Amino acid sequence: MANNEIVTINLEDYRARSSDGSIAKVFTGRDRGKIVREKSKLDQLSEVNDKIKFIIPDNVYAINPSFFEELFLNVVQKLGKDQFLQKFEFETQGEYSYEKALHEAITRILRTKSAIG
Description:
It is a single chain. Helix content is 50%, strand content 21%. By secondary structure, it is an alpha/beta fold. The protein has one domain (3-116). Helix 1 runs parallel beside helix 3.
């Protein structure tokens, strides 16, 4: 049975930090996307919640499609584009426009799935 509450995942909680304490302003790479997917328990949350809200923090300069691709790999494969976009909502606290990278990642995921299976 699904939960009607909106679960929030704030990317601020998953920023890489350097040894001097400064925070990354870029989310990039499949490896980082996988780390965030696993630490946030995204796959499990998507199984039991109707809505998931992603907060993109202020002062993010870039999110690469490869990061989104690995982060959302399993849920996009399971739900497809339309259901994914209905289930997941995005809120940006700054000026960063994430839409192009997100849609490119979704396209890549679905293309890879259809090429494999």
